[in-house]
């Protein structure tokens, strides 16, 4: 389930301000620790803007043939 950036920020504030440990607070909220700490890292690096949903598409394809090599291959064929 995707959460809004405002909800993620509220959860971060809640964990920071509670007297319980982060583990206990997150268990009560039903949020995995790995998910929370991924949000928290992005929040520390980029602020509230880092909590916005990001595109799940990869930025690059690991096995893509570079355009220059592709053109040479086509010319050769």
Give the low-pLDDT segments: none
> Quick one: overall form?
rod-shaped
Number of helices, where a helix is a run of at least 4 consecutive DSSP H or I residues: 4
Strand content: under 5%
Q: Please state the structural category.
A: mainly alpha
Round the Cα radius of gyration to an integer and report it. Answer: 20 Å
Characterize the biggest β-sheet.
none
Topology as a string of helices (H) and strands (E): HHHH
Terminus-to-terminus distance: 49 Å
Number of extended strands: 0
Mean of residue pLDDT? 89
Helix content: 55-70%
Written description of the protein model:
It is a single chain. By secondary structure, the protein is mainly α. The protein has a domain at 5-51. The chain contains 4 helices and no strands. The protein starts with a helix and ends with a helix.
Blueprint of the fold:
Elements: H1 5-17, H2 22-29, H3 33-46, H4 67-76
Helix pairs in contact: 1-3
């Amino acid at each position: 389930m995707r959460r809004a950036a405002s909800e993620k920020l509220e959860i971060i504030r809640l964990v920071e301000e509670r007297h319980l440990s982060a583990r206990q607070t997150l268990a009560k909220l039903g949020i995995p620790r790995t998910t929370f700490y991924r949000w928290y890292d992005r929040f520390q690096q980029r602020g509230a803007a880092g909590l916005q949903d990001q595109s799940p598409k990869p930025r690059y394809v690991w096995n893509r043939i570079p355009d220059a090599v592709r053109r040479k291959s086509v010319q050769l064929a």
